[in-house]
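Notebook entry, structure prediction.
Reason for the run: the old model in the group folder had no record of what sequence produced it. Starting over properly, with the input documented here first.
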Amino acid sequence: MAGNQFHTLDDIKDIEGKAGLVRVDLNVPMADGQVTDDTRLQAIVPTVTELADKGAKVLLLAHFGRPKGEYKPEFSLEPVVAPLAKVLEREVSFMQRPGADAIAELANGSIVVVENSRFAAGEEKNDPGMAKMIASFGDFYVNDAFSAAHRAHVTTAGIAEHLPSYAGRSMERELNALDKALGDPEHPVAAVVGGAKVSSKLDVLRQMVEKVDHLIIGGGMANTFLAARGVDVGKSLCEHDLADTANEILEAADRADCTVHLPYDVVVAKEFAPNPPTRTVNVHEVANDEMILDVGPAAVEALSDVLKTCRTLVWNGPMGAFETPPFDAATVALAQTAAALTKEGSLLSVAGGGDTVAALNHAGVADNFSFVSTAGGAFLEWMEGKTLPGVAALQKP
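New structure, fully documented this time:
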């Protein structure tokens, strides 16, 4: 979706004293009442501070966990208020439920966290009555939570039908990066798609072969494709029942002139454990009692050469079992190549999904990619070519 198809904060005028309903992602990991990773809190700082500085009353709408439409104290957003205030370096208050009188009494520039939107049964059903009621508390709506944009909920889509709606700064950055990567990319385009199972990324693979010039398949998924081509993968993780599907995807790639890259040398072990005895072998030399746990160095070198010919890269999923050494080697090496090419200006690199972010952080290169999305489901659905309700709701009529 091209960057100019939605309103941004640049289009908001005269908001002093007005109430802004701002959908953010506060679904942060917590342990013993402490936030263990504040990445999502940091992401909303530009939007929240900009609105507050312009004198708006900023009401932050968010969910936390899956309380299934009823009040459960362990899913309250109240414990997130203090960590958010620290990140914003401003005072943040908490509101159990929004009300016209309470909002009217707020000072201009106030920042308020509203209790977990999923405590209301109507939120996940996108209940029209609830959307209308919540919209009545605000003068404008901002969505800054791309990670929740694949959900058609009251706070991600429903409210936008009743108020002037805008993309926040984080959402704007995300949409512009995604548009550059797959909406209107500079070719040649490469996609790295890894992970354990083909079944979880079938739609992504089908979409990618139509859109990219090089499809690099890694992780356990590669084993399924190798097996479909008649390679004996030993006792590797493999979805043998998807052989026909894998072959269909390979045939579709041929028709679309997309080159699919599967590993031709692999790192194998007899047990899946940290630092076991390993062998690096040609894919045709995997023994019956061995499992493929990473892509081999020769294949990684060849893949690095492929990236050097490309202008755009989309990355989702690791190349091997990267959480367990030494099976992180291929992911780290290829990520470092992509980061170096990005740094020298020859490659636009966009990555997303939980495992991917962890893998790039592990490789020490997340900051060197053009854009790293923390969204999991939303990033995958975008790669699948699906319309995201939270994004569609912001599109200019």
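Summary: The chain has 13 helices and 17 strands.
The old model has been moved to the deprecated folder.
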